[in-house]
Amino acid sequence: MSLDTAAIARRAYDSLEPFHVLTYFNHGLGDAQQDLGLDGHAFYVGARACPLGETTGAVVASAFYNFNPETIAASWDRARAAGLTALDDRRYAMLDEQYRSILGDAVDRITPLLPAFEELIAGLPLSGRPLGTAWATTPIPEVPHLALWRHLSALREWRGDNHISALVDSDLNGIDAGVFHEAALPDPTVQRRVMGKRMFLLTRGWSDDDWNAAVERLAQRDLVAATDDGHRLTDAGYELYQRIEARTDAITGAAFSADFADVIEQTRPFVKPILDAGVLPGTRKKA
């Protein structure tokens, strides 16, 4: 397989993301949250940001970017009160159970993939990438499927830092970036991941007024236009959207070698059962 490294970075994101996202959508979440005495949002924030250590909510909010900083700070305080080490341990225990349940005996075939991912993560340029750096310097679990999850989590958050740099360069603040991404595209055949307004506001902690103000700011820049059921990107907005995605892929791709495309293909069979389990949003359980 011959692909340029930006395309490999995009392929990795599109293909491997579900393996990580199982963290936030699985049948063990309720028990894990109950054991720690945390609500869903505090568990999410704590589990994702715990590698940052005992820092402030403002630091976590800056790394999460499109979330309401006040919501993040409150959730982070609750997570810290429960104990970041306890949260990290309970999250790993939850994932161990979920991967064994979904992958079955396939977990025993993950080990050969690990050296390539470990080498990739160890070689990532870390400057200016706080959340990616925090994850890339966490201990590597001895259990193979948890080690793979750790590597993919580090890669995911490192890519996210790269994406944030592209958003900052495009003068899109946190909520504006989120509302911009949720806009309908001029070409409805283009596929991408979106949450929808209701879920965005619920999970990111913003209000309808915040959303409407962001739409207005984007419209003043001729990046979006109002529609009967929301807003869509203008031609200028779509051009910016494509430029941001291309820039993210280019920055991220610089860390990949051309032969990593084969590693991605070898990893995909461990992602498919997660999609087929029907626990992730937009998926349905397959027999």
Overview of the structural elements:
This protein is an all-alpha fold. It has a domain at 5-25 and 107-170 and 242-277. Helix content is 64%, strand content 3%. The protein has 14 helices and 2 strands, in the order H-H-H-H-H-H-H-H-H-H-H-H-E-E-H-H. It has helices spanning 5-21, 29-36, 40-49, 57-64, 69-82, 84-103, 114-122, 130-136, 144-169, 174-182, 197-204, 208-220, 235-253, 260-276, and strands spanning 224-227, 230-233. Strands 1-2 form a two-stranded antiparallel ribbon. Strand 1 (224-227) and strand 2 form a beta hairpin. Helix 1 (5-21) crosses helix 13, helix 3 (40-49) packs across helix 5 and helix 4 (57-64) packs across helix 5 (69-82).
The number of helical segments is 14
What is the H-and-E element order? Answer: HHHHHHHHHHHHEEHH
- DSSP helix fraction: 55-70%
Which structural class do you get from the secondary structure elements? mainly alpha
Oligomer: single chain
For the biggest sheet, the summary is: 2 strands, antiparallel
Number of strands: 2
Low-confidence stretches: none
Computed over alpha carbons, the radius of gyration is 19 Å
Placed side by side, the strands forming the largest sheet appear as 1-2
**Terminus-to-terminus distance:** 31 Å
Beta-strand share of residues = under 5%
Q: Give the overall silhouette.
A: globular
- Give the overall average pLDDT: 96
